[in-house]
Amino acid sequence: TVSDSGFSKIQLYSEQLDLPVHLHLHETATEVTDSLRDIGVRPIERMNKLEILSPSLQAVHMTQLRDDEIKLLSVKGVQVAHCPESNMKLASGIAPVPRILEAGIAVGLGTDGCASNNDHDLFSEMDMAAKLHKVACMDPCVMDARTGLKMATIEGARAIGLDQHIGSIERG
Question: How far apart, in whole angstroms, are the C-alpha atoms of residue 158 and residue 139?
Fold first, then answer.
């Protein structure tokens, strides 16, 4: 719904004001097919051409990713917000979080908005993320409690660029 010139302005303001860009991206299969039909490229390719993919981008959802796109996100330093309960409620798909994490991308947990989540309970999101990826990968060890806790704390802080100040659980 945002024009190329609109995205160019967003990127300009982001750079000038040193502010992150928060973008729901590859949220649904329909978003991807509409982009291919209307623009001729997948949304991530469009964002790359517009130079939106950068360490200042916080990409939310990311349920429709190919391996080459995960690699591109890693190279560009993009951060990801994973919203498992929202994605399940809207039947948007499952973000390939284990592969995203393997690529070294910071993944924080999110709840999305009230219209797409029945609550804003981060503990529930941690639990759901762990269980969802175990089923999606058919591997009971793929998303352990430590990984879920890190996504809710230090990785979430890293995803918003504040890991030097917040996000760690420390004695005292």
Answer: 26
Q: Please write the tens of the pLDDT for every residue from 40-71.
A: 999 999 999 999 999 999 999 999 999 999 99
CA distances from 25 to 43, 58, 60, 82, 165 (A): 7, 9, 6, 11, 27
- The DSSP-derived string for 58-124 is EEEE--S--HHHHHHHHHHT-EEEE-HHHHHHTT-----HHHHHHTT--EEE----GGG-S---HHH
> Nearest-CA neighbor of 27 among 55, 58, 63?
63
What DSSP element (H or E) covers 57? Answer: strand 57-61
| pLDDT for position 142 | 95
Is the CB of residue 135 less than 8 Å from the CB of residue 54? no
